[in-house]
Amino acid sequence: MAEGGYEIVCNGCRASVSSLAERCPDCGSRLLGAPEPSPMITMSAASHPQAAGSSGLASALTLPVTRVGPSSLYKAAAMDFAGFWIRLLAYVIDVVVLFILLVLADLAIRLAVDPVAFVLAIATLLYFPAMESSRGQGTVGKRVCGLIVTDSHMRRISFARALGRLGARVIVSALTFGIGYLMVAFTDRKRGLHDMLAGTLVLHR
Fold first, then answer.
1. Which of 99, 106, 111, 84 lies closest to 202, judged by CA?
2. For the residues 97-110, what does the mean pLDDT come to?
3. How far is CA 8 from CA 12, 21, 29, in A?
4. Burial class (CB in 10 A: 0-12, 13-18, 19+), 190
């Protein structure tokens, strides 16, 4: 029996070792004390101080949660904004459609078909807001060009917002001499001044 203790058997080399020894003198295996922490646990605790104060393996291996801000969500969404020229083409198509409606309304007035003239006049006035707030989310010109109108979160807009967008467009045309439309060409999200006022986006489908 070892002095001041008793003999134990080393699990590594099966040699007889004093119970007071911490390591086997033959093979160096650890005999007493807490087991050495694994490299994975040590690394995790060092990397994440908040885990070091918690008990248990699960706390030590807890990883930090990365919070995603609005800018990251914006990049992840990968919105395909419609540029100036494709929107101009869509507008030209809409002008042709409106011209046809006006011609038909004028013809109905000349033929004294008042109900038809009234319906065509209302359709002309509500053409943009009614179609942009519909399920198709766009006028005839926008649908032909593969465009939709959404709010800033890519959702379908209401009729009220679409009507406000039309009003903003009229104001932009009258007060900025077309500069509000040209903003589509150089703003980051391809928005005209009327889009900014109405909180809308024009995107490719």
1. 84
2. 89
3. 12, 10, 13
4. buried
Does residue 17 contact residue 31 with C-beta atoms inside 8 Å? yes
Characterize 142-180 residue by residue with b for buried, 16 or more Cβ atoms within 10 angstroms of its Cβ, and e for exposed: bbebebbbbeeeeebbeeebbbbbbebbeebeeeeeeeb
Q: Considering the entire predicted model, what is its pTM?
A: 0.60
Could you count the other beta carbons within 10 Å of the beta carbon of residue 27? 13
pLDDT (tens digit per residue) in 37-59? 444 444 444 444 444 444 444 44
Residue type, 171: I
DSSP state of 56: S
CB 150 within 8 A of CB 138: no
